Amino acid sequence: MKHLIRTSDFTKEEILEIFDDAREFKNIKFSRILEGKIIVTLFFENSTRTRSSFEIAAKRLGAEVINLDVGTSSQKKGETMYDTVANINAMNPDAIIIRHSVHGLPESLIGYVSCPIINAGDGRHSHPTQALLDLFTITEYFDGDTEGKKIAIVGDVRNSRVAGSNRRLLPRFGIDVNLVAPDCFKYEGDEFKQFDSISEIVDDMDIVMSLRSQLERHNITYFESLQEYAKDFCITSELMERKEFLLLHPGPVNRNIDITDEVLKHPRCKVLEQVTNGVAIRAAILKKLILEDK
Fold first, then answer.
1. 7-127+275-292 fold
2. Which residue, 172, 236, 264, 271, has most beta carbons within 10 Å?
């Protein structure tokens, strides 16, 4: 049985097959290929796009979705996460989708289940389905030619699980990853080039991925204001005019901090297309894990 904990759980060939299915699912409003299947979602962190995207993807394939209300679950009575998942597994679901603030928790649950586990985000570690939909969006924009393309990932690259998953995934498809962050958010490694502002390298980039300023993940105030942060890291109309690059953002966008209002309307800003692609990619992943990998 296969699980999706990190993007390396899929080979390059499997990812390309998922992309082929995603292209089909973008044009299909409803299918019955998962009819009779039951998918359980466990979201211990807030989510709009990821949770809704998985639910819509599952229902468009004919599956039933059970959302466990973690606020009223037996964990409030002292039950461990492992016992909670083992009990859910005893009800014979066909997949469990989990988001949790603890790094590595989805992977630690694999031994307690007999169905696929899909990581919908764990702490600061990984968000594999987001990285896959990001890569799919890039692939579609460049008609499959990703080799040699350069991307700047801008913002809190140290703590962002989206940045983490993309750092690991994109180089497998020939994309040169560059990181742009203030000193307090710089990546603690030397395998990627790092820069202090987006204006420093934007002229050489094919893709820019802006990240949300994740203030809730910090106990320290690093900037006097978000406007101070935005001076070097907000994507503006001026930057869009300097170079023809594809602009991505995993959402939610902090307007005029991550990306300006004007740029969000720009035709090369594909934030909403990423959301559309997310449904198709997650549908393809559900198909693969539930039907193909037993």
1. Rossmann fold (3.40.50)
2. 271
